[in-house]
Design a protein that fits this description.
The protein is of the alpha/beta class. It has 7 helices and 6 strands; from the N terminus they run E-E-H-H-E-H-H-H-E-H-H-E-E. 41% of the residues lie in helices and 10% in strands. It has a 6-stranded parallel beta sheet with strand order 1-6-5-2-3-4. Helix 1 crosses helix 2 and helix 1 packs parallel to helix 3. The radius of gyration is 17 Å and the shape is globular.
């Protein structure tokens, strides 16, 4: 298994949403270090609009939960509270979670009261990451990748775009990319994501 520290200077690499989230949440110093390398232009990080949308939605849900707006979270990822950065919004008891039973799309009044997720998303847009464009043929390739590798839609679209751009290296905490042949996947080694 390749580590994020194995990424060579000068590499142009696709960054999965998990890297962005774990860097922002302070869960992975290795993810933060990789983003600092991207900011310093030692590594050229590439994301897609799908990555940006996933990041924005996940940060929105986490902010709503930290503010006490959500009810009975359903864990997709669960980390110990002591891994959180002190500058982050407080984590709910038991750790950090992506989703909750509260459907934020049905509660616009809650979304209107959230601000941190928007600031974080703006920071990504103004940063040193390249945002790749989406082409219609990417969806056709994504359907093939879903069938071949069992990937979720956002993962398959991101791999399709990365391939079109000639990128065969990806930084991800998510093990979903490990089964894609011809893709070199770098993982943070400083924490273990739960399934």
């Amino acid at each position: 298994m390749k580590s994020l520290t194995d990424i060579r200077n000068g590499t142009r690499i696709f960054l999965d949403t998990s890297i962005l989230l774990y860097a922002r949440w302070g869960i992975s110093p290795a993810c933060r270090a990789l983003l600092k390398r991207c900011q310093g232009k030692a590594v050229q990080g590439v994301i897609t609009p799908f990555t940006l949308a996933d990041f924005c939605t996940s940060r929105m849900a986490q902010e709503a939960q930290a503010a006490g707006f959500t009810q009975e979270p359903t864990p997709l990822l669960d980390f110990a509270e002591d891994l959180a950065d002190a500058s982050e919004p407080p984590l709910p008891p038991g750790g950090l979670r992506f989703r909750s039973t509260l459907d934020l799309s049905r509660t616009p009044q809650i979304i209107r009261n959230l601000t941190i997720y928007a600031d974080d998303t703006r920071a990504l847009l103004s940063g040193e990451l390249e945002i790749a464009s989406v082409h219609p043929e990417d969806f056709l390739e994504a359907l093939f990748l879903q069938k071949t590798h069992g990937l979720l839609t956002s993962h398959s679209l991101n791999v399709a775009i990365a391939r079109r751009l000639g990128l065969n290296e990806i930084a991800a905490a998510d093990p979903a990319f490990d089964s894609v042949q011809g893709l070199i996947v770098y993982h943070p080694q400083d924490f273990q994501a739960t399934q």
